[in-house]
């Protein structure tokens, strides 16, 4: 999910009330040919292996298409299965709202009312409401639960059991923090109240009502091919990283089916929920900018409802524009340090506004070439350091020990950073749990560069110490 989000107040003014007024602003509907031309240009400029996209307006799909190829060499089309990762959260929230419409769930009741198994080593968990789960203000955090244990779960019931020893990171409702656990707990709530497996409940409550026949939770029914990761500009096919994916990121769908979903989100066509519940799904809490599975971002001076998602070999983003009634989705069978899907989506928004879109691309290649250059420089410096270690040792002989330690610390710094790499990345991601296995996927260029720098530093330090302490050398003076 892209964050932080902007313009919550503007969105509030746009979607307030039981039934939002969609499409009041005049729209310049782009033709399929114009959309295709832009997407082909985007595919060429980004170098993505494959992408699919859909644009909707009001009650119709303007155009859905696919370009490029999958890992098996097949052409990507509008019907190609794609993992949509955290875009799944919007669907899970909609499933909850179907239970609200039936009077079986109330958003402001504690989760434990419907889900007695939701227990933690923190009495505050008993006060977490359903709305707080969906608004991501529950206090649940990657920093305070055992994410590793949840990812080893094989069912939503097992997932809930893995939370037993966890705690909340703050008071329920006090602050927003993005955490997948919220939506996997929500998925278990759907499962328990509905009385069926979450995948079956989603099929009947959401996918079936919209005619999304090519969509499913998990890989049992709809199986996408392997995706790609980018390593120094080259796309490598890899199987998706194993791990538990339920309501937070488990949906597989297609551009064609996403078109049906986006139409429903603008209040047109077959509906999953009542108009009042649809408005609630899009309404952030006061002072916030994340609604029930949708975020708010300002694009071209107005608020759009947006949610993005990335796994380790797939990336996706969706958006709906309350002012024009347009819907957009872009999905790729790849993942890298640089996300091109959002830029491509912005281009589609520009086309719908009658503006000339900016050609996306170049960010991934530039970033990874810079990292490759750094890795090569580090390697060269490491070789030079080993070769000149004798000279270094002769210059350091007889100096104070602390001077030698100080000079060695510099070459060992990359190794120290590598040793704590997951923790540094977690810190940069606001406490999100990160594993070594994850760092070998789309962060691979950064991981490799850091590993080369660490190896070069260790080789240099080892060679210097061997030369410094070998027989016949004066040693640093130790007080």
TrEMBL record:
Organism of this sequence: Micromonospora endophytica
Extent of the signal sequence: none
PANTHER family the record matches: BETA-LACTAMASE-RELATED DOMAIN-CONTAINING PROTEIN, D-ALANYL-D-ALANINE-CARBOXYPEPTIDASE/ENDOPEPTIDASE AMPH
Identification of the protein by name: Penicillin-binding protein
